């Protein structure tokens, strides 16, 4: 699109009224400039994804579940606004605390961490988590789940999280307080982009010392993710932060094109909420437009929006706007389709090579 002209919308002289709703606020944002405008346009793009019946991936980096954002993810899953998820292991691990009623509390960031350590308090900025009552209790739960599960056979992290969701649904005190349980209920695959870089993997260490072997089939995992995108009429990502979850979702395009030669072209839409800078060369801050050169996105000019903001502020606005303006969608239940998608992708690849 050519933006080198003076044909844009007039900047309004804003008015705030007591009876305004979230849709009015988004319109205000979209009509202004800077990152308020980006957030407003991102909220509208998310709505467009939903209305286009796109297959929507949510990527979660950072420490979002310790601040309660699992409840937001759960609401989106239940409404059919998220079809598959890629998260860090930490976000899955800490989400489980809420289902099992393990204490997580507001703390403070102006503290002496030497004193907190002596008091068995773990800190994530201004969130406090108890070492014995929460972390060690959670460790025992995870170890109990996998003592005799997924041993001596290849598995994906989607299978790993599905097992956690099933167990918490059947045994935890508050299963309704877990997006992982909701994902289990709605057959939403939850992949952990770096399982070994989290407490989930650390919890398997004592079991491994007891000669229980856990083999993550990471190659099948990335093929499943690519197969989801390949079998989607349209595909989009909503990215909270960047990191490995961002790249894991976006690399589906290069896998389909560069490696498998299927000529897919990447995602139709991507929204990223980030505070990372693009000029340092890191993936977290890399612009979505740059991703076009890798085949990660179909169009670098449209339907790719980066919001430079704190996700704890911006993401709830995005969620509330979607929940307030869109009717629920029928769940795609991708988890149950992964086997078929994988088989179909295999056949397509080898047929193309003949």
Oligomer: single chain
Tell me the fraction of residues in β-strands, as a range.
5-15%
Main sheet summary:
6 strands, parallel
Terminal CA distance: 40 Å
Q: What is the CATH topology classification name?
A: Deoxyhypusine Synthase
CATH superfamily: Deoxyhypusine synthase
Along the chain, the helix and strand elements come as: HHEHEHEHEEHEHHEHHEHEHHEEHH
- The CATH class assignment is Alpha Beta
- Radius of gyration based on Cα positions: 21 Å
What structural class do the secondary elements suggest? alpha/beta
> Which outline best applies?
globular
Strand order of the largest sheet: 7-2-1-9-10-11
Q: How many strand segments?
A: 11
Helix content: 40-55%
* Number of spatially distinct domains: 1
Account of the 3D structure:
This protein has helices at 22-30, 34-51, 70-79, 89-99, 113-118, 131-146, 157-171, 179-185, 199-202, 205-209, 218-230, 243-250, 252-259, 311-325, 338-353, and strands at residues 55-60, 84-87, 104-106, 121-124, 127-130, 154-155, 190-192, 215-216, 235-240, 269-274, 304-308. It has 354 residues and is α/β, with parallel strands linked by helices. The chain has a single domain (22-101, 135-353), classed as Deoxyhypusine synthase (Deoxyhypusine Synthase), CATH 3.40.910. The longest helix has 18 residues, at 34-51. It is globular.
């Amino acid at each position: 699109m050519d933006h080198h002209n003076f044909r844009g919308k007039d900047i309004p002289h804003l008015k705030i009224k007591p009876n305004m709703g979230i849709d009015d606020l988004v319109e205000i944002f979209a009509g202004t400039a800077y990152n308020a405008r980006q957030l407003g346009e991102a909220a509208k793009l998310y709505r467009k994804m939903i209305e286009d019946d796109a297959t929507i991936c949510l990527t979660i980096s950072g420490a979002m579940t310790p601040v309660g954002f699992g409840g937001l993810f759960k609401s989106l899953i239940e409404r059919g606004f998220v079809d598959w998820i890629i998260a860090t292991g930490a976000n899955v691990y800490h989400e489980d605390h809420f289902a099992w009623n393990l204490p997580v509390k507001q703390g403070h960031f102006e503290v002496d961490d030497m004193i907190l350590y002596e008091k068995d308090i773990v800190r994530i900025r201004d969130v406090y988590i108890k070492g014995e009552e929460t972390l060690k209790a959670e460790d025992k739960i995870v170890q109990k789940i996998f003592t005799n599960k997924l041993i001596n056979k290849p598995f994906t992290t989607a299978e790993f999280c599905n097992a956690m969701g099933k167990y918490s649904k059947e045994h935890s005190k508050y299963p309704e307080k877990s997006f992982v349980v909701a994902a289990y209920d709605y057959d939403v695959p939850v992949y952990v982009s770096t399982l070994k870089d989290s407490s989930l993997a650390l919890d398997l260490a004592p079991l491994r010392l007891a000669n229980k072997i856990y083999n993550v089939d990471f190659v099948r995992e990335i093929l499943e993710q690519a197969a989801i995108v390949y079998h989607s009429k349209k595909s989009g990502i909503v990215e909270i932060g960047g990191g490995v979850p961002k790249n894991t979702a976006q690399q589906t395009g290069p896998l389909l094109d560069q490696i498998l030669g299927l000529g897919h072209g990447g995602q139709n839409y991507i929204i990223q909420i980030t505070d990372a800078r693009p000029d340092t060369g890191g993936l977290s801050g890399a612009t979505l437009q740059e991703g076009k050169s890798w085949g990660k996105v179909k169009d670098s000019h449209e339907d790719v929006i980066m919001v430079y903001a704190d996700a704890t502020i911006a993401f709830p606005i995005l969620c509330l706007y979607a929940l307030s303006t869109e009717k629920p969608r029928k769940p795609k239940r991708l988890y149950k389709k992964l086997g078929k998608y994988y088989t179909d992708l295999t056949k397509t690849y080898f047929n193309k090579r003949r």
